[in-house]
Amino acid sequence: MKDIIIAPSVLSANFADLKTELKRCNESNIKWIHYDVMDHDFVPNLTFGSKILKDIVSSSNFNIDIHFMVKVKTPVFEDFFEEYIKCKPKMMTMHIETMSNEEIQKFYNLCIKNNIMFSVAVSPKTEIQILDNWLDKLDNVLVMSVEPGFGGQTFISEVLEKVKYLAKNKKDNKFKYIIEIDGGINDQTSKQAIDAGVEMMVAGSYLFESDNFKEKVESLKNA
Ligand code: DX5
Ligand code: ZN
Record keywords: Manganese included (predicted)? Predict the structure, then answer.
Protein backbone atom coordinates (compact mmCIF):
# COMPACT_ATOMS: atom_id res chain seq x y z
CA MET A 1 0.00 0.00 0.00
CA LYS A 2 1.24 3.47 -0.90
CA ASP A 3 2.12 5.73 2.00
CA ILE A 4 -0.28 8.66 1.94
CA ILE A 5 0.97 11.95 3.36
CA ILE A 6 -1.45 13.67 5.74
CA ALA A 7 -0.95 17.41 6.20
CA PRO A 8 -3.14 18.90 8.96
CA SER A 9 -4.32 22.41 8.10
CA VAL A 10 -3.65 24.59 11.15
CA LEU A 11 -6.44 26.90 9.99
CA SER A 12 -8.77 24.69 12.07
CA ALA A 13 -6.45 24.52 15.09
CA ASN A 14 -7.14 26.23 18.42
CA PHE A 15 -4.78 29.20 18.25
CA ALA A 16 -5.08 29.86 21.95
CA ASP A 17 -3.40 26.51 22.47
CA LEU A 18 -1.26 26.00 19.39
CA LYS A 19 1.44 24.23 21.35
CA THR A 20 -0.96 21.44 22.32
CA GLU A 21 -2.26 21.28 18.74
CA LEU A 22 1.27 20.79 17.39
CA LYS A 23 1.87 18.18 20.06
CA ARG A 24 -1.21 16.30 18.84
CA CYS A 25 0.26 16.33 15.33
CA ASN A 26 3.61 15.14 16.56
CA GLU A 27 2.12 12.29 18.57
CA SER A 28 0.19 11.18 15.48
CA ASN A 29 3.38 10.79 13.40
CA ILE A 30 2.52 13.80 11.28
CA LYS A 31 5.44 15.01 9.15
CA TRP A 32 3.81 17.88 7.27
CA ILE A 33 1.84 20.95 8.39
CA HIS A 34 -0.36 22.87 5.92
CA TYR A 35 -0.37 26.65 6.46
CA ASP A 36 -3.17 28.62 4.74
CA VAL A 37 -2.31 32.25 3.99
CA MET A 38 -5.39 34.24 2.87
CA ASP A 39 -5.57 37.90 1.93
CA HIS A 40 -9.27 38.83 1.87
CA ASP A 41 -8.88 39.64 -1.81
CA PHE A 42 -8.21 36.46 -3.78
CA VAL A 43 -10.48 34.76 -1.23
CA PRO A 44 -13.18 36.23 1.06
CA ASN A 45 -11.26 35.41 4.25
CA LEU A 46 -8.20 36.70 6.07
CA THR A 47 -5.83 34.48 8.02
CA PHE A 48 -2.25 34.88 9.19
CA GLY A 49 1.09 36.14 7.92
CA SER A 50 4.58 34.81 8.53
CA LYS A 51 4.89 35.48 12.28
CA ILE A 52 2.81 32.51 13.41
CA LEU A 53 4.71 30.31 10.95
CA LYS A 54 8.01 31.56 12.36
CA ASP A 55 6.85 30.56 15.85
CA ILE A 56 5.66 27.15 14.61
CA VAL A 57 8.97 26.32 12.94
CA SER A 58 11.05 27.52 15.87
CA SER A 59 9.23 25.13 18.20
CA SER A 60 8.77 22.06 15.97
CA ASN A 61 10.28 20.03 13.15
CA PHE A 62 7.48 19.63 10.60
CA ASN A 63 7.83 20.00 6.85
CA ILE A 64 5.90 23.14 6.03
CA ASP A 65 3.51 23.36 3.10
CA ILE A 66 2.44 27.00 2.62
CA HIS A 67 -0.79 27.40 0.65
CA PHE A 68 -0.98 31.02 -0.52
CA MET A 69 -4.51 32.12 -1.37
CA VAL A 70 -3.43 35.64 -2.23
CA LYS A 71 -3.04 38.05 -5.10
CA VAL A 72 0.57 39.10 -5.43
CA LYS A 73 1.38 42.29 -7.28
CA THR A 74 4.24 42.10 -9.76
CA PRO A 75 6.51 44.89 -8.46
CA VAL A 76 6.71 43.24 -5.04
CA PHE A 77 6.53 39.64 -6.17
CA GLU A 78 9.83 38.46 -4.69
CA ASP A 79 9.57 40.73 -1.61
CA PHE A 80 6.24 39.24 -0.65
CA PHE A 81 7.80 35.81 -0.11
CA GLU A 82 10.85 36.98 1.83
CA GLU A 83 9.65 36.41 5.41
CA TYR A 84 8.07 33.08 4.48
CA ILE A 85 11.27 31.85 2.85
CA LYS A 86 13.14 32.65 6.06
CA CYS A 87 10.88 30.04 7.72
CA LYS A 88 12.44 27.44 5.38
CA PRO A 89 9.21 25.87 4.09
CA LYS A 90 9.60 22.55 2.32
CA MET A 91 6.94 23.56 -0.23
CA MET A 92 5.16 26.71 -1.40
CA THR A 93 1.87 26.63 -3.31
CA MET A 94 0.45 29.55 -5.30
CA HIS A 95 -2.89 29.57 -7.07
CA ILE A 96 -2.59 29.34 -10.83
CA GLU A 97 -5.61 31.69 -11.16
CA THR A 98 -3.69 34.62 -9.62
CA MET A 99 -0.56 34.45 -11.75
CA SER A 100 0.37 35.49 -15.27
CA ASN A 101 2.73 33.18 -17.14
CA GLU A 102 5.59 35.51 -16.29
CA GLU A 103 4.67 35.33 -12.60
CA ILE A 104 4.54 31.54 -12.65
CA GLN A 105 8.04 31.58 -14.11
CA LYS A 106 9.18 33.99 -11.38
CA PHE A 107 7.62 31.81 -8.72
CA TYR A 108 9.33 28.74 -10.18
CA ASN A 109 12.71 30.53 -10.20
CA LEU A 110 12.19 31.63 -6.61
CA CYS A 111 11.46 28.07 -5.49
CA ILE A 112 14.48 26.66 -7.34
CA LYS A 113 16.78 29.35 -5.92
CA ASN A 114 15.65 28.63 -2.37
CA ASN A 115 15.40 24.88 -2.68
CA ILE A 116 11.65 24.89 -2.03
CA MET A 117 9.24 22.47 -3.71
CA PHE A 118 7.40 24.25 -6.54
CA SER A 119 3.65 23.76 -6.25
CA VAL A 120 0.53 25.29 -7.76
CA ALA A 121 -3.10 25.00 -6.71
CA VAL A 122 -6.19 24.81 -8.93
CA SER A 123 -9.59 25.96 -7.68
CA PRO A 124 -12.63 23.74 -8.37
CA LYS A 125 -13.83 25.77 -11.36
CA THR A 126 -10.41 25.96 -13.02
CA GLU A 127 -9.63 23.50 -15.82
CA ILE A 128 -6.69 21.26 -15.01
CA GLN A 129 -5.30 21.55 -18.58
CA ILE A 130 -4.17 25.08 -17.66
CA LEU A 131 -1.19 23.34 -16.02
CA ASP A 132 -0.13 21.28 -19.04
CA ASN A 133 2.98 23.35 -19.82
CA TRP A 134 4.18 23.16 -16.23
CA LEU A 135 3.61 19.51 -15.40
CA ASP A 136 7.22 18.53 -16.11
CA LYS A 137 8.53 21.15 -13.66
CA LEU A 138 6.05 20.88 -10.82
CA ASP A 139 6.96 19.12 -7.57
CA ASN A 140 3.35 19.16 -6.41
CA VAL A 141 -0.13 19.94 -7.73
CA LEU A 142 -2.76 20.94 -5.19
CA VAL A 143 -6.27 20.12 -6.35
CA MET A 144 -8.80 22.17 -4.37
CA SER A 145 -11.85 20.10 -3.47
CA VAL A 146 -13.72 23.10 -1.98
CA GLU A 147 -13.80 26.75 -3.00
CA PRO A 148 -10.70 28.23 -1.33
CA GLY A 149 -11.38 30.43 1.69
CA PHE A 150 -12.77 28.44 4.59
CA GLY A 151 -12.34 25.20 6.49
CA GLY A 152 -15.26 22.88 7.15
CA GLN A 153 -16.85 22.90 3.68
CA THR A 154 -18.29 19.96 1.76
CA PHE A 155 -16.07 17.96 -0.60
CA ILE A 156 -16.70 18.56 -4.33
CA SER A 157 -16.32 15.09 -5.79
CA GLU A 158 -16.22 16.32 -9.44
CA VAL A 159 -12.61 17.44 -8.89
CA LEU A 160 -11.57 13.79 -8.73
CA GLU A 161 -11.56 13.85 -12.55
CA LYS A 162 -8.62 16.28 -12.27
CA VAL A 163 -6.86 13.91 -9.91
CA LYS A 164 -7.30 11.10 -12.43
CA TYR A 165 -5.99 13.32 -15.24
CA LEU A 166 -2.92 14.17 -13.17
CA ALA A 167 -2.35 10.55 -12.17
CA LYS A 168 -2.52 9.37 -15.79
CA ASN A 169 -0.18 12.10 -17.00
CA LYS A 170 2.24 11.38 -14.20
CA LYS A 171 2.34 7.70 -15.03
CA ASP A 172 2.53 8.13 -18.82
CA ASN A 173 5.27 10.77 -18.70
CA LYS A 174 7.07 9.77 -15.51
CA PHE A 175 6.47 13.21 -14.00
CA LYS A 176 7.66 13.76 -10.45
CA TYR A 177 4.84 15.84 -8.97
CA ILE A 178 2.90 14.78 -5.90
CA ILE A 179 -0.90 14.91 -6.26
CA GLU A 180 -2.33 16.74 -3.26
CA ILE A 181 -5.97 17.41 -2.38
CA ASP A 182 -7.35 20.06 -0.03
CA GLY A 183 -10.85 20.61 1.34
CA GLY A 184 -13.59 18.52 2.88
CA ILE A 185 -11.40 15.52 3.60
CA ASN A 186 -12.78 12.95 6.06
CA ASP A 187 -12.74 9.16 6.33
CA GLN A 188 -15.29 8.86 3.49
CA THR A 189 -13.91 11.37 0.99
CA SER A 190 -10.31 10.29 1.60
CA LYS A 191 -11.12 6.87 0.20
CA GLN A 192 -12.48 8.40 -3.02
CA ALA A 193 -9.41 10.63 -3.24
CA ILE A 194 -6.93 7.79 -2.75
CA ASP A 195 -8.76 5.63 -5.30
CA ALA A 196 -8.47 8.45 -7.84
CA GLY A 197 -4.72 8.78 -7.29
CA VAL A 198 -4.19 11.31 -4.49
CA GLU A 199 -0.87 10.98 -2.66
CA MET A 200 -1.11 13.82 -0.15
CA MET A 201 -4.20 15.00 1.74
CA VAL A 202 -4.83 18.17 3.67
CA ALA A 203 -7.31 17.85 6.52
CA GLY A 204 -8.39 20.64 8.83
CA SER A 205 -11.69 20.40 10.67
CA TYR A 206 -11.86 16.59 10.53
CA LEU A 207 -8.66 16.33 12.57
CA PHE A 208 -8.61 19.40 14.80
CA GLU A 209 -12.26 19.20 15.82
CA SER A 210 -11.75 15.67 17.06
CA ASP A 211 -10.77 14.51 20.54
CA ASN A 212 -8.91 11.59 19.03
CA PHE A 213 -6.52 13.12 16.54
CA LYS A 214 -4.35 10.05 16.07
CA GLU A 215 -7.28 7.75 15.37
CA LYS A 216 -8.61 10.22 12.79
CA VAL A 217 -5.23 10.39 11.05
CA GLU A 218 -5.17 6.62 10.81
CA SER A 219 -8.74 6.58 9.47
CA LEU A 220 -7.63 8.82 6.59
CA LYS A 221 -4.61 6.69 5.70
CA ASN A 222 -6.46 3.41 5.88
CA ALA A 223 -9.64 4.60 4.21
C1 DX5 B 1 -9.51 26.10 2.45
C2 DX5 B 1 -8.12 25.74 2.90
C3 DX5 B 1 -8.02 24.40 3.48
C4 DX5 B 1 -8.86 24.18 4.71
C5 DX5 B 1 -9.22 22.73 4.78
O6 DX5 B 1 -9.47 27.17 1.59
O7 DX5 B 1 -7.21 25.80 1.83
O8 DX5 B 1 -6.68 24.02 3.72
O9 DX5 B 1 -8.21 24.57 5.87
O10 DX5 B 1 -10.13 22.55 5.82
P11 DX5 B 1 -11.14 21.32 5.85
O12 DX5 B 1 -10.30 20.07 5.89
O13 DX5 B 1 -11.90 21.55 7.12
O14 DX5 B 1 -11.97 21.39 4.62
ZN1 ZN C 1 -5.21 24.93 2.11
Answer: yes
